[in-house]
Design a protein that fits this description.
Strand order of the largest sheet of chain B: 1-2
Strand content of chain A: 25-35%
Number of helices of chain A: 10
CATH topology of the largest domain in chain A: Rossmann fold
Structural class of chain B: mainly alpha
CATH superfamily of the largest domain in chain A: Nucleotide-binding domain of ferredoxin-NADP reductase (FNR) module
Radius of gyration of chain A: 24 Å
Oligomer: heterodimer
Number of strands of chain A: 17
Structural class of chain A: alpha/beta
Largest interface: A-B, 32 and 47 residues
Radius of gyration of chain B: 22 Å
Number of strands of chain B: 2
Shape of chain A: globular
Helix content of chain B: 55-70%
Largest sheet of chain B: 2 strands, parallel
Shape of chain B: globular
Order of helices and strands of chain B: HHHHHHHHHHEHHHEH
Largest sheet of chain A: 6 strands, antiparallel
Strand order of the largest sheet of chain A: 4-3-6-1-2-5
Number of domains of chain B: 1
Helix content of chain A: 10-25%
Distance between the termini of chain B: 27 Å
CATH class of the largest domain in chain A: Alpha Beta
Strand content of chain B: under 5%
């Protein structure tokens, strides 16, 4: 809620009045709860999307075509969207690059997902997601985008699913305006996501494509760029791929005094490795404590003077549930670990949870 | 019933302290098996129940717009009654227990849910989840034993006020949601001790007042007004639906802890209670209702009160599935699994309310000294 210094007569739209009136009949539910049953994508609803199609790209990647809700504000090429999907009944949020060009006539967007080994969400999206599914969305975000004035010479340095934000840029007609070189690594020719489309662009001469098949030729050494793209240090470069490639690229560009020309996107999900105990921050109270793996977060907070909601203190009443913004906690009853990154919307019972690594708790 | 410690035939006298801890381990294992398997099927279930309830509620209210027409009144009232019961029992009660928090859906979560009931969700959660489920059937600690207005256990002291308790109970049944709201905000205690001006109490009272206003406005003003010429008949319909919902939920809840065969416990017996002993108290302090699937749905699966009290945070659709395992455990350890059909259990609970409106009979057997909850050898 926001407060303003001046109380201005607020304009209440006809629609809001109507909803408020309807609310007197639907209470304790909101009219929205009923509207969600029939029109989940309507204006004013929490942003969602309907999966229209799931298209396989390679043996382990697929493109999801999504009809976003009316509240979708569009995206810039290169941006990503956070997508919430229920996997085994549990809502999971992940970020994926938008691979479609902005402004499609039918309003649809697409994201392309590569299934990573043991990836709960990515495997679900690539192999089990069915058209018709409603997914939760956030507005597009990210600054891995081209500047307003498109540079004349561009290099894209990508590997694996790192091609996805770049595809969003290429499909927006970038290559018609600039001289574009794409150096892309994938295990084999068949593993190149958008392989056919990229090769078609190269054949037309729109881009210069350098494909690196790492199963046969080994990983790309960034130093090889001296031969592959001799003018690469003069090109505005966007790099996206595994951490190793990005680290090497940053060192390479820095060594050539061209660090300002290199833009990187580290798209790998934050990996949280659970341990025993950790630093716990209560973000609202501004209190940070060290908690061991046997102390409940409720005790840790109370001992540090944080006003913690609490109840039965034995895990049955759910009176102590608070949001875990990020980090890992362990359920002391059975050892189960719960992890969260910002935006996951994870809530935990503090009376039966102990820190299993650094944790931020919204309290 | 008498607190278990004073019983001549203590039903757990044959259990050793080790037995009790093994029972606890076995119950933990049942819980872990459900957790390991909990997933999409359960999520689909609760979403389906919620969708059904909403569809039923809105269509029944639409039908009631024409409630002057008698068939519309009957269909609409029946539908609205069922919708209100589903909202309170299978959905509200269980969502507020955190049974569906694991889905991480902010729209179906114990911290955001509100129900069609005059007691605000957060106040109910505190008195029900925290006090009743923790202190189940401990005389003097679990106020659900008679809700502070009735005597439902021989060990609760008799007072002439209890002579009228069959009448109180009937009134409580008819206006159960108001009784619960008063109970959740501890109105009785505050009245007795003249503590009505305490800020915490006033805040609770204001929240209840807002909730009552919204509920009354919906059921007794806006919906009848929308019905135009059917104003009075819609008013009668919503009143009837609330009344039936109240009587139904009161009956189901009476069956949970009042029927014959359910044990109660002494305050001192839960000091230093182990996990196994807590489980054992839940096992003996609750009673089930037997019947068809529809009955279980309409009771919010509180017909599996024993399973619910053992695992208050497991999804309600799972109680039915684990009941045979729980019952087998009772049998293995020679414990009484109290269950019976609805009419029998309701009658048993009512009979107790009537019987205990009078002081205890003198010829009751009294053991020489209270026995501890856990027999000799316990830690």
């Amino acid at each position: 809620m926001t407060t303003t210094a001046h109380r201005r007569p607020q304009k209440v739209s006809f629609r809001d009045r109507l909803l408020r009136l309807a609310g007197t009949v639907t209470t304790p539910l909101l009219p929205d709860d009923y509207l969600d049953m029939v029109a989940p994508l309507r204006a004013g609803a929490p942003l969602r999307g309907r999966v229209v199609a799931v298209r396989p790209e390679t043996r382990d990647a697929a493109t999801l075509v999504i009809q976003p809700g009316r509240g979708w504000q569009g995206h810039l090429p290169g941006q990503y969207v956070r997508l919430g999907v229920d996997v085994d009944g549990v809502r999971q949020w992940r970020a994926y690059s938008v691979t479609s060009a902005p402004g499609a006539a039918d309003g649809r967007i697409s994201v392309t997902v590569k299934a990573i080994p043991d990836g709960k969400v990515s495997n679900h999206l690539v192999r089990r997601l069915r058209p018709g599914t409603i997914v939760q969305l956030d507005q597009a975000q990210g600054d891995f985008v081209l500047p307003a004035a498109t540079p004349e010479r561009i290099l894209f340095l990508t590997a694996g699913s790192g091609i996805t934000p770049v595809m969003g840029m290429l499909r927006s007609g970038l290559a018609d305006r600039s001289d574009v070189v794409l150096v892309h690594s994938a295990p084999t020719r068949d593993d190149v996501i958008f392989g056919a489309e990229l090769r078609a662009l190269a054949e037309r001469g729109t881009v210069r494509l350098v494909e690196r098949h790492t199963d046969t030729s080994g990983l790309l050494d960034v130093a090889e760029l001296d031969d592959l793209v001799p003018d690469h240090a003069q090109r505005h470069t966007w790099a996206c791929g595994p951490v190793g490639l990005l680290d090497a690229a940053e060192a390479h560009w820095a060594a050539r005094d061209a660090a300002e020309l290199l833009h990187t996107e580290r798209f790998r999900p934050t990996v949280i490795t659970p341990g025993e105990g950790g630093t716990v921050t209560f973000t609202g109270a501004g209190v940070t404590v060290e908690a061991d793996g046997a102390t409940t977060l409720l005790d840790a907070g109370e001992n540090a003077g944080v006003l913690m909601p609490s109840g039965c203190r034995m895990g049955i009443c759910f009176g102590c549930v608070v949001p875990l913004r990020q980090g890992a906690v362990r359920d002391l009853r059975n050892g189960d670990v719960t992890t969260a990154v910002p935006g996951d919307g994870v809530a935990i019972q503090t009376c039966v949870s102990a820190a299993a690594g650094t944790c931020d708790i919204d309290l | 019933m008498t607190v278990i410690q004073k019983k001549a035939d203590n039903p757990i006298a044959h259990l050793s302290a080790e037995d009790i801890e093994i029972i606890g381990k076995e119950l933990d294992a049942i819980r872990d098996r459900v957790l390991a398997d909990r997933g999409e099927r359960d999520a689909r279930y609760i979403r389906k129940v919620i969708k059904t309830q909403r569809t039923l509620e809105i269509s029944s209210r639409a039908v009631l717009l024409f409630s002057l027409f008698p068939p519309a009144w009957i269909v609409g009232t029946a539908g609205l009654t069922v919708a209100k019961i589903l909202d309170n029992m299978e959905i509200g009660h269980n969502v507020l227990h955190g049974q569906w928090d694991w889905m991480r859906d902010p729209k179906i979560h114990s911290t955001t849910w509100e129900w069609d009931h005059v007691s605000p969700a957060d106040q109910w959660k505190q008195s029900h989840n925290e006090l009743h489920h923790r202190f189940t059937n401990v005389v003097g600690k679990d106020n659900d034993l008679g809700y502070g207005i009735m005597r439902v256990d021989e060990d609760q002291p008799w007072h002439p006020m209890h002579l009228g308790q069959p009448v109180w109970n009937l009134l409580n049944a008819c206006f159960f949601e108001y009784g619960i709201a008063a109970y959740d905000m501890e109105l009785g205690d505050h009245l007795k001790q003249k503590r009505l001006k305490e800020p915490a109490f006033r805040a609770k009272a204001r929240a209840v007042g807002r909730k009552i206003r919204r509920q009354v406005l919906k059921d007794y003003v806006v919906h009848p007004l929308l019905s135009g010429p059917s104003f009075l008949s819609t008013l009668a319909a919503t009143f009837t639906a609330n009344l039936l919902r109240n009587v139904w939920s009161h009956s189901v809840i009476m069956c949970g802890h009042f029927p014959n065969g359910v044990e109660t416990f002494e305050k001192t017996s839960i000091e230093g209670e182990t996990r196994g002993e807590w489980y054992l108290r839940q096992m003996l302090g609750s009673a089930n209702i037997s019947g068809p699937r529809l009955l279980h749905l309409m009771t919010g699966n509180l017909s599996f009160q024993i399973e619910h009290h053992l695992f208050p945070d497991l999804p309600s659709n799972r109680y039915q599935e684990i009941a045979p395992q729980v019952r087998a455990l009772f049998d293995r350890y020679g414990l009484r699994y109290t269950t019976g059909p609805l009419p029998k259990q309701v009658a048993s609970a009512w009979w107790k309310v009537i019987r205990l409106s009078l002081p205890n009979r003198r010829d009751r057997r009294q053991p020489a000294a209270p026995a501890p909850l856990v027999p000799s050898g316990a830690v």
